[in-house]
């Protein structure tokens, strides 16, 4: 059946055109109920039992109650196509979660295409809003299910919209609020999952107002989006992402492109209910209220109670700080300070933590009101209601934020689920994954069905394939971290008769097994990257691929994608070729083993000779890259020795970089550059590249200030100038130069993936590598970006046709955005895992050690501990001090001095500290650093 939908549209030239869209209606769309006598039962997903009703949900229930819907107690659910579409338009994250429920064979969620069924499609009515039309369509679908099943099963419309529920009742459709339905299940735990959004027109039974009757206005009202948009255009407001200081939750920054600097947001009142990661609109405060960064104190946990929740502009809107007196050089120039006037995009998600300890209320079992304390100090406490307080007090739990009223000191949220016992290592490791949105679920049966059967070997068809070159005769080897099983890359270096070298980088041919638009490919695209924690690895691809079929292990034949150069002894590239290949690695070496071979003068076997030749070439390439302006930066990478039985850390120290590491890195960089040039030449508009934006002068200001305070002058006019300056930054302390490089690393922008068609050629530059073009090709086992690049390279060589998605620029941009998000989350999860295992290690090992001061603040400083790669705050003022605790900060010299002149501390100075795990607040252990 054909239905024509007509509408008029005004063109740019002012003409009115009439458009007619054809909308096909069918009568063969099944209801999904097995007891139905009309529909095909093989398509059934629901149970349709007489004891439990079939639920038809409206849009707001799906949007707001997704945590409840994911609980296995909620089943036999019809999700209408009109609801799915509206959810997709309003919240993509919730849409993905409801789609996952509908595709999960273990759950009874059925998608019914009501917009294409001839009996449930509703035409537009004059004067009817889109929202009212959608509500009517939902009621029509619910009524159709009732008549279609003829009383064989109950049908219940679930809506919290008072008007929709009234109309359904008048039309003879059984309808209930979500809370009433949950109460009918007699499951007290499910009631904790209910969301009570402040803005929804909702009938909630027995909602108890938690707040006092005489409530003060604590926060300014958020400006409407129309006013924000106007203010942004006129330069009154400034837009950016709010980042809360990890050491002081009352201090935040908003990077603003409109003023070219970071705006300091000081105090919860000025943050105005914004969370870390929110996109906000900020209004600058009068200049006499601007703060210098170093005048903002470090805060500790108890400051949460210091009455910071006040309307912005209040004189009391700050946590307590020590008295600050500027040094003789006079007050430093202030930095822009502001207040949040509106939220453009919320970053609320699930948070992990525990409930504040409290006595069990009398008559336990009823509704208790509790405060949830996130493990992340940047997140404010969250008020929840729970009926299972006794079971939750000693547990790590997940809580989601629902709303934050301007009259309420805390945001309101609801309990989602329990993770496990507080302090249990497995529980705390899962917290790391949840906080960083890492998907650690087992791969689905649909994904695993995409894998080739095991055991897998190179076939005769592979050997005969004309696209694939047989390179098994080459002496190929890999060099990786100890115990590495997911070996992406291997190398070879063969001397040629003309005195040159043939050098090859061979990368696992993952795309031979991961085909576009399959469940395996979709899963890898969503995960984006493998995640490396201290004690485990969370794979992007299933283990049969990562550790066997694709891994370039020793003494087995494997499929590869190879980049092969002819190089002179001076490491000049004469020619480059790209080919799919078959290799057989002769050795899988660790960095330590490769280094030992190169250093042992007694060894002269062919493999060791290859290593030495490659290392010689790599040193020349590295020197040339640095001469070109590439930065040699440093990071505080930590290495743990883990007990194989208990998985507890036995030892901790800085990760050691050897020449062997640098050798492999050099050839991987060269392969990535070569491939970037190749794919961009063929696909200038849809290549996936990686760029590192040039840091602004404002970003490098902290580094310049620190360097100047110790008599160093850094030239930041170019990456070459900065690299040369860093080379000259030496002192008596052998660790001094590395510390300066670590500080420089922290001033850099993040390197990001992008689609070549989205930017101009000058913007492609990779600042840190001093390379005009760069991409990722060398790790497709653990990075989805490399999978995309392999497909581009194969298409540029005429091996395969370029998948259709490369013609969809917005989709490519979306993929790049997800890759950047996943890459950053993986980094953050890795760091959080290090912090967790650092706590476990020092819990029974109080230690005295040496540290370096890296940042001066008004009541202390932040130190870096070289031996362990740890950073943290040292407080100079005890909370109990009422006087005599004043310190003065000399901004020019980057020093903090006791007022009587008896003690002075400067940036980069050595100090001796005591490290010990303490628990100043229950369930929030921390590594406390104190001066010895």
UniProtKB/TrEMBL annotation:
<feature type="domain" description="PIN">
    <location>
        <begin position="53"/>
        <end position="166"/>
    </location>
</feature>
<feature type="region of interest" description="Disordered">
    <location>
        <begin position="295"/>
        <end position="339"/>
    </location>
</feature>
<dbReference type="InterPro" id="IPR033770">
    <property type="entry name" value="RRP44_S1"/>
</dbReference>
<dbReference type="GO" id="GO:0000175">
    <property type="term" value="F:3'-5'-RNA exonuclease activity"/>
</dbReference>
<dbReference type="Pfam" id="PF13638">
    <property type="entry name" value="PIN_4"/>
</dbReference>
<dbReference type="Pfam" id="PF17216">
    <property type="entry name" value="Rrp44_CSD1"/>
</dbReference>
<keyword id="KW-0271">Exosome</keyword>
<dbReference type="InterPro" id="IPR033771">
    <property type="entry name" value="Rrp44_CSD1"/>
</dbReference>
<dbReference type="GO" id="GO:0003723">
    <property type="term" value="F:RNA binding"/>
</dbReference>
<protein>
    <recommendedName>
        <fullName>Exosome complex exonuclease RRP44 homolog A</fullName>
    </recommendedName>
</protein>
<dbReference type="GO" id="GO:0071031">
    <property type="term" value="P:nuclear mRNA surveillance of mRNA 3'-end processing"/>
</dbReference>
<dbReference type="InterPro" id="IPR029060">
    <property type="entry name" value="PIN-like_dom_sf"/>
</dbReference>
<keyword id="KW-0540">Nuclease</keyword>
<keyword id="KW-0460">Magnesium</keyword>
<dbReference type="InterPro" id="IPR001900">
    <property type="entry name" value="RNase_II/R"/>
</dbReference>
<dbReference type="InterPro" id="IPR012340">
    <property type="entry name" value="NA-bd_OB-fold"/>
</dbReference>
<keyword id="KW-0378">Hydrolase</keyword>
<dbReference type="GO" id="GO:0016075">
    <property type="term" value="P:rRNA catabolic process"/>
</dbReference>
<keyword id="KW-0269">Exonuclease</keyword>
<keyword id="KW-0539">Nucleus</keyword>
<dbReference type="Pfam" id="PF17215">
    <property type="entry name" value="Rrp44_S1"/>
</dbReference>
<keyword id="KW-0694">RNA-binding</keyword>
<dbReference type="GO" id="GO:0000176">
    <property type="term" value="C:nuclear exosome (RNase complex)"/>
</dbReference>
<dbReference type="GO" id="GO:0000177">
    <property type="term" value="C:cytoplasmic exosome (RNase complex)"/>
</dbReference>
<dbReference type="InterPro" id="IPR050180">
    <property type="entry name" value="RNR_Ribonuclease"/>
</dbReference>
<keyword id="KW-0698">rRNA processing</keyword>
<dbReference type="Pfam" id="PF00773">
    <property type="entry name" value="RNB"/>
</dbReference>
<feature type="domain" description="RNB">
    <location>
        <begin position="468"/>
        <end position="799"/>
    </location>
</feature>
<dbReference type="InterPro" id="IPR022966">
    <property type="entry name" value="RNase_II/R_CS"/>
</dbReference>
<dbReference type="InterPro" id="IPR002716">
    <property type="entry name" value="PIN_dom"/>
</dbReference>
<dbReference type="GO" id="GO:0006364">
    <property type="term" value="P:rRNA processing"/>
</dbReference>
<dbReference type="GO" id="GO:0004519">
    <property type="term" value="F:endonuclease activity"/>
</dbReference>
<dbReference type="InterPro" id="IPR041505">
    <property type="entry name" value="Dis3_CSD2"/>
</dbReference>
<comment type="similarity">
    <text>Belongs to the RNR ribonuclease family.</text>
</comment>
<dbReference type="Pfam" id="PF17849">
    <property type="entry name" value="OB_Dis3"/>
</dbReference>
